[in-house]
From TrEMBL:
Protein's name in the database: TOG domain-containing protein
Stored PANTHER family: ARM REPEAT SUPERFAMILY PROTEIN, CLASP
Region feature Disordered, mapped onto this chain: 1-58
GO cellular component, one term: cytoplasmic microtubule
Domain of life: Eukaryota
GO biological process, one term: microtubule cytoskeleton organization
Gene3D superfamilies hit by this protein: Leucine-rich Repeat Variant (1.25.10.10)
GO MF assignments: microtubule binding
Length: 230
C-alpha cells in the first residue's frame, strides 16, 4: 500500500483575510453665520497706530515786532486758559500773548504773573522745541519788564524753578534752545541787582550737572562784571 505525504493528509484551513486599517475622516460642520469673524478677529494682528500729526510751523517773533493789545483787559481774562490748553499751537500763541503783556501791559499781567511763571517752567519741559523756545523767549521779556519783582514770589518758588530750568536748557545739546536760554540768563543778569541774584545762583555752583555749574558760574561772573562789583 502506497503511503501519502503527511502534508496532503492534514486538512487545510482557509487563510483569513487581512483586516484593512480604518481611516477616520473628520466631518466638517458648517459654521453658523454668527461664528464668522469671531476667530478671524482674534487672529488678526492689531493695526499700527496712526502716524503723529506733523508739527505746524511756528514763527519766532522778536520782541520789537510784538504789538500792544487793543483791549488788554478783556484779553487777560482768557490768558491762563490759553496757556493750559491741550493744543500746543494755542499754548505757543498764548506764550506770545504773555510777551505782549510783559512789554506793553505789565500792570495787567502782574496779578497772575506768579502762575504764569510756573506755566512757563512746565512749557520749557515740553519735548516740543517750539514750546520750549517760545517759553524761554517769554521768560526774557518777563525779566526785562519786571526785574527784581520776580524775587517776591517766594511761596511757590516760581523764580527758583524758572532759574533752574534756564540753567538746564542752557546746558543742553540743542543749539538753538541753548542759545535762547543764554540770552534769557543775560536778561536776568541785566535786570536784577547782584546781591539777591548771587544768593540765588550760588546754590547751583555745586549742582550735580557739570554744565549747570558752568552756566551758573558764567551768570555770576556776568552779574559782577555788569554791575561793577569786581
Amino acid at each position: 500500500m502506497a503511503l501519502r505525504p503527511i502534508d496532503n493528509a492534514l486538512p487545510t484551513t482557509p487563510e483569513r483575510p487581512k483586516k484593512q486599517a480604518k481611516l477616520s475622516i473628520p466631518i466638517q460642520t458648517q459654521k453658523k453665520p454668527s461664528d464668522f469673524g469671531v476667530n478671524e478677529e482674534k487672529k488678526a494682528s492689531p493695526l499700527p497706530p496712526p502716524p503723529p500729526p506733523a508739527d505746524a510751523s511756528v514763527d519766532y517773533v522778536s520782541s520789537e515786532k510784538l504789538k500792544p493789545f487793543e483791549d488788554p483787559e478783556s484779553k487777560i481774562q482768557g490768558l491762563v486758559e490759553g496757556l493750559e490748553s491741550k493744543d500746543w499751537v494755542k499754548v505757543c500763541e498764548s506764550l506770545n500773548d504773555v510777551r505782549r503783556f510783559s512789554l506793553h501791559h505789565s500792570t495787567a499781567l502782574l496779578p497772575i504773573l506768579e502762575k504764569v511763571m510756573l506755566i512757563l517752567v512746565k512749557a520749557m519741559n515740553n519735548p516740543r522745541s517750539a514750546l520750549c523756545k517760545t517759553s524761554i523767549m517769554a521768560a526774557s521779556d518777563i525779566f526785562n519788564a519786571f526785574g527784581e519783582k520776580l524775587l517776591d514770589f517766594t511761596d511757590s518758588g516760581a523764580f527758583d524753578r524758572l532759574l533752574l530750568q534756564l540753567l538746564l536748557k542752557a546746558s543742553q545739546d540743542k543749539k538753538f534752545v541753548c542759545e535762547e536760554a543764554d540770552k534769557s540768563l543775560k536778561s536776568m543778569v541785566n535786570t536784577i541787582a547782584p546781591l539777591p541774584l548771587l544768593n540765588k545762583l550760588s546754590g547751583y555752583v555745586n549742582h550735580g550737572n557739570l554744565r549747570v555749574r558752568a552756566k551758573a558760574a558764567v551768570s555770576i561772573s556776568n552779574s559782577v562784571f555788569q554791575n561793577g562789583c569786581g
